[in-house]
């Protein structure tokens, strides 16, 4: 509750609004400050001066000196520094970002200590505001995950806390996808692939939206890349709306909700499982929503009543699942031989039996059109991989194979 009021208060003070509009006011004074340098002298600075500094952020970031971005009166989380303490009150931190990486920036602290969180970024990072997670709940830890551009960049993070906290940044190389051998894992000569947040989509062509707080959208790196690649190709093929990505794993690899004292799933640990919304065939959002008439079986099991599926874009769903199972092909072309193969191996897909019937009907049509390869088609048609499951009347649950992901962040400061 405190958080909601606080966020409103910040917006009223002009922080959030200014960051969105990014008026081209020149920076009042931009001078290099050492990594972790002095905090803003006081929190008494007027809304006007905050606004000026905020508006200038894109310029400040893009005209950064070789030593890194600078921000008068703010702090810098330099590249060599994974985390830094945040005092109670307002903080403004320029977070340096490496090129071509997946990055999760997080504010950690007591769950209800967040009064305000906002960001301002240069054009090269895209519009992080317009595409934020639809379900942030104002709690800590608060994360923002993003894919960084080809050049090093900087993200201005504005935080207001009513208790001391921490700012952390984890970075993963999206090209390091090779699975470690089980033997090497056992011997300790190789490590598990890392857990990282699914980046905020910044381009309509990304083909997805985030339907959960970002702290619950962490996955093993290869799963992140596999999902993004398949969702983008499905978007290119069908040119329909974005498909929602719901709960994955919590930021520390636990099931979502564990950090609030109650896990909301039995599974969803270690960055291997993710819930996907059902693509809509009408104009409604492709989110977590029931697309059938639900029926309680024996008072405890919810299923779709047979023959009641409506407004499901089964073609798009079957296409997406086929891509996840079989791997995308360059430019989405039909490629019966020598395909690259899956980026992350799918272990199983769970959804309601009624949707499975629709997926299989659509898969036949996809095969006629040569939009799916025989291997992906065969996998969707057999019961081993695509399985009916009760209570899955409003989403598809995808589980990936391989080792549990390695969390990059510990719950408390080391
Ligand atoms: Zn699930």
Q: In words, what does this structure look like?
A:
The chain has 414 residues and is α+β, with helices and mostly antiparallel strands. It has two domains: 1-172, no CATH class; 173-414, Muramoyl-pentapeptide Carboxypeptidase, domain 2, CATH 3.30.1380. It has helices spanning 2-13, 15-21, 47-55, 57-62, 182-187, 221-238, 314-326, 353-368, 374-381; strands spanning 75-77, 83-86, 89-97, 102-108, 114-121, 142-147, 153-161, 165-172, 195-197, 208-210, 218-220, 243-245, 273-276, 294-297, 301-304, 346-351, 386-388, 396-400. Helix 2 (15-21) packs parallel to helix 3, helix 7 crosses helix 9 and helix 8 runs antiparallel to helix 9. It is globular and about 60 Å long.
Report a brief summary of the structure.
By secondary structure, the protein is an alpha+beta fold.
Please describe the structure with a list of short key phrases separated by commas or semicolons:
globular, alpha+beta, Muramoyl-pentapeptide Carboxypeptidase, domain 2, 9 helices, 18 strands, four-stranded mixed beta sheet, binds zinc ion, 414 residues, 2 domains
Mean pLDDT over all positions: 83
Which hetero compounds are present in the coordinates? zinc ion
How would a crystallographer describe the biggest sheet? Answer: 4 strands, mixed
Give the strand tally.
Answer: 18
Provide the CATH architecture of the largest domain. 2-Layer Sandwich
* Count of discrete domains: 2
Total helix count? 9
